[in-house]
Amino acid sequence: MLTPQRLTFDQLNERLRGYEREYGYSTIEFYRRYRNGELGDDDDLMMWAGLYHLYLTSLPVRQFMQSELVAA
Questions:
Q1: Nearest CA-CA partner of 58 in 3, 8, 2
Q2: CA angle 39–43–44, rounded 5-degree value
Q3: Which of 5, 26, 34, 36 is deepest in the core (most CB within 10 A)?
Q4: Are the CB atoms for 9 and 3 separated by under 8 Å?
């Protein structure tokens, strides 16, 4: 069973880059192929997909928070 971990946005990016290096294609290309059912569903690929989903959902929040800091 996985235990929850806190990741900074930079750590999240590094984890995604690690998968890209390991599998030899970009996260965007991976996700397209994963969503089309071309890659299967082993644990490693599901983790990559989950991390990318986290990246996509947290990026707008991060951008908003940075804009608030600049405006203050």
A1: 8
A2: 70
A3: 34
A4: no
